[in-house]
Amino acid sequence: MRAVGWARGLPLNSGGKVARDRAREHLESLGWTECAPQRVDSVLVTVSQLVTNAHVHAHSSTRLVLTWDTRCLYVVVHDAASDLPARRPPGTERLGGRGLSLVDALADDWYARPCPGGKIVHACFRPPASARDADDS
């Protein structure tokens, strides 16, 4: 199986929009914006949430990696904090507490694990069957 990957470093002063824009460019190069546009929005919201969470909670730059192996688009965000993300109840008086719930609702699967130099948060997005069929031809 052949995989196509892409990686970008995102400094702490960059935001979710930079991450979304770069991810969208990669998704366009893979043809996802044409064959799976509904999944593109889910991927971009997840990218934005994971990068923003890393910047806000880990106080570090991040690395964003997207990999497509024809079965799943993997979104991986690495930051310098070893503490794994934990869900917080959303509050009515403060921002936050919804990011991981969004990721859980949008991604087909996700997990976080420690790794050298911090942690990764990994999400998987499977395209609709029609997009996979087009890739196989």
Automatic annotation (TrEMBL):
Kinase is among the record's keywords: yes
Top-level taxon: Bacteria
Histidine kinase/HSP90-like ATPase domain: residues covered: 22-123
Coiled-coil features, chain-numbered ranges: none
Record-level Gene Ontology MF annotations: ATP binding
Pfam families named in the record: HATPase_c_2
Protein keywords: ATP-binding, Kinase, Nucleotide-binding, Serine/threonine-protein kinase, Transferase
This protein's record includes keyword Transmembrane: no
Protein's UniProt name: ATP-binding protein
Species of origin: Streptomyces chiangmaiensis
